[in-house]
Design goal:
Layout (H helix, E strand, L loop, with lengths): L2 E4 L7 E5 L4 E6 L21 E10 L2 E8 L6 E5 L6 H14 L10 H31 L5 H18 L23
Parallel strand pairs: 1-3
Antiparallel strand pairs: 2-3, 4-5, 5-6
Length: 187
Amino acid sequence: MAKIKTKQAIEPVAENPIGESGETTQVLPIIIDPTPIPPAPPKSANPFAFSDIKDVVRVAAGFQCAVKFNHHDDYLAYLACAEDVEEHGRAIHAACVARASDGVPDYFPTDAELLEAVQDRASRELRRATSEVTKYQDRVDIDDASEADIAMLRAWKTYRAGLNRLPDQVDYPHHLTWPVAPDRSAL
């Protein structure tokens, strides 16, 4: 059985006989790198601690910004929301709000983004209106409709027609007058 010993000085590997039992000891060199190991960066008690915020732009959901977190070398893109579930998210939002008085620009969607948003909303509202029209039309078709049901059918059809006329407005999709959805309690 061989035992391994190390020495501080660099020496070639050699086998040295030890005693009568026939055991040998192998001397291995120690390789020492003269460059010191840099100290580890201090660990922050809060991994979400941040030191700076820049490029703040107001968007519909809050603020788009670049945040310099203490644990990261570069700025990271961040969407700061007032209702963020994380404490650091709300703190970043508060810092963005504080900078808003310095003249934070608002984000203006491109024409394509605006058109897509208008079409999405109109599609959702058209599906809703069609569902309501179908419900009240079925009641009318089987002679089970009250006067209120007939009034609601007419109101939902008028609303649906208004939604279909949105593209006919002069400044579509930039400045729109949206039709108002019917409210049964108003009848």
